[in-house]
Every structure is written in C-alpha cells, then in structure tokens.
Amino acid sequence: MKKALSVVIAMILCVSFCLLAASCAGSGAKKYSVGIVQIVQHEALDAATEGFKKALTDKLGADNVTFDYQNASGDTANCTTIVNGFVANKVDLIMANATPALQAAYNATQTIPILGTSVTEYGVALGIENFSGTVGSNVSGTSDLAPLDEQAQMILDLFPATKTVGLLYCSAEANSLYQVKVVEEYLAGKGVSSKRYSFSDSNDVSAVTTTAAAESDVIYIPTDNTAAASAEIIGSILRNAKKPAIAGEEGICSKCGVATLSISYYDLGYKTGEMAAKILKGEEKIEKMAIAYAPTTKKYNKTISDELGVTIPSGYTEIK
C-alpha cells in the first residue's frame, strides 16, 4: 500500500514539475521594446502605425513586445528629442513614421535598428546619391511612393483640357519637393505648364491654396504630411473655387481631391512590422534589407467628383 502511494506521489510530483518547467519556458520568451516616433497625426500615418503594431504583435506575441509611441505634433525638433529618449532607453528597434522622423532617428543612432515607413524616397531623405534601394546600414523600411508618372498622367486623362497645373506642397518636406519635381518634368514633356505653390507650415496653407486655386486649372498634391493634416482646409478652398485636385494618397483625396493613385498605409505599416519581427528575431540583417513598396490602386472621391461634374472612367475604386 505504502509502495503504491509512493508511486502515485512520485507521478504527481513529476507531472507538476513538467508543468512548472513548461510554464517557465513560456514565460522565458524574449521581450522587446520598440520606440515609435510619428511626425504628426493624420489618417495615413495613423494607419501605418496601427499596421506596424499589429504585425509585430502577430509575429512576436502581444505580451512580448512593448511599444513606446510618441507623436511629434508636426515639429521636427520634437522628433530629435523623442528619438534621443529612445536611444537613452536602449530600445531594441525604432520605427520612424514619415521622413522627418526617419531623419531624426538616422542622426541619433548608428547601432539601434531603424525602420522607416510612409517615407517616399530614402535616397532623398537620407542624402544618399545614386541610391540603389538598400541603405546598407542600420536603416531600412517601406516607401509610400506611387508611380509619379502615372499620377501625373491621371491629371491629363481626367482633365484633358488642362493648361496649367498648380503643384501644392510643403517646402519643408524634402520628399514632397522630390515628387513635385518628377510630376513637373512629366507634365512639361506633355506640353502642360505647371507652377509650384509651397507653404512652409500649416499657417500658410490657406493663403497659398487660395492663390493656387485662382491661378490653376487643376491642383496636384503629393504625399505631404502638412497637406494631409490640413486637407479639410484645402478641400474647402478648392471646392469653393470649383477646382479639382489629384492627390498623392487616399487620405488627402478623401478630403480635397477627385482621384488618387494610392496605397494602403495600413498594409504598408504591416509590412514594416513584418520586417521588424525578422530583425528582432535575428532572421534577417537590416543592412541587407532592401526598401519595400506597396501595390497601388486607382481611387476616386465620389462626392467631389459629382460636385464638379467629373466623369470617372472604369478601373477606379470609390473611396469609402
């Protein structure tokens, strides 16, 4: 009897030990800290951040990653302060949402992995000549660049009588200027004149947009964070002037444009998160990671199109 009881007790202790060991093994999963710096809040950047966080929690587990999300409120100096804090706290990875955030992170550390998202052109953003598609240091990420020649052609397809195009953008955003230059050159090659209308910050948006609307047949707005944050103001002015706009991304188009060749910023952020998971788990080295891109879709704003009497051809999806 005593022998049988001893066997039972031994079995119970063995099972308990195994369960405890399994529990300890599970709780021993590596924990990661990730700093997120976002230049400003608006629909596109917010979606990219959410996609990034979702991908990392999907890949690493919600209990194994801690996010320190900070919004710079449109101030590039705030980006520097934020990323310096991340460096001091020795985060495992920095996600920089938009060009000014990427530039601040790039200047703050050469050792902590940095992934950008919602960045149009990394060569322009980081001052790399003859950019090959791979930064080659502690920086990689995803680009929101849509084919600019196709965006420019969209202007001519939807508004074939166009003689003058107003290029509306923020002069403080290097990637906005890059897009404007490409579109400008494409239009010139088609015999269509264009003029730049730049604002330095949100305080100038209303006055500059009013002038652009008065002097242009069509407005082009690139993927521009200041424009995105002020899209409702721009939309009100353009609609009152009955002037159409082609936008570089869906968020801007939903408030002030007729059509866009755009991407899903949520999907772009999710892709960035997948890249982050591979880096953190040691599956890939960031210095060998090429910049990734998202597929594009032609979309249109039905409300503004109807107001202006614009006929949208087949192949466009309505922005909901």
What does this structure look like?
The chain is α/β, with parallel strands linked by helices. The chain folds into 2 domains: 32-144 and 264-289, Response regulator (Rossmann fold); 148-262 and 298-318, Response regulator (Rossmann fold, 3-Layer(aba) Sandwich), CATH 3.40.50.2300. It has helices at residues 2-27, 43-60, 76-88, 99-108, 122-126, 148-158, 174-189, 205-215, 225-229, 231-241, 250-256, 265-280, 302-308; strands at 32-38, 65-71, 93-97, 114-119, 139-143, 164-170, 193-199, 218-221, 245-247, 259-262, 292-293, 297-300, 317-318. Strand 12, helix 13 (302-308) and strand 13 form a beta-alpha-beta unit. The longest helix is centred in the N-terminal third of the chain and has 26 residues, at 2-27. The radius of gyration is 25 Å and the shape is elongated. The model is unreliable at 1-5 and 12-27 (pLDDT under 50).
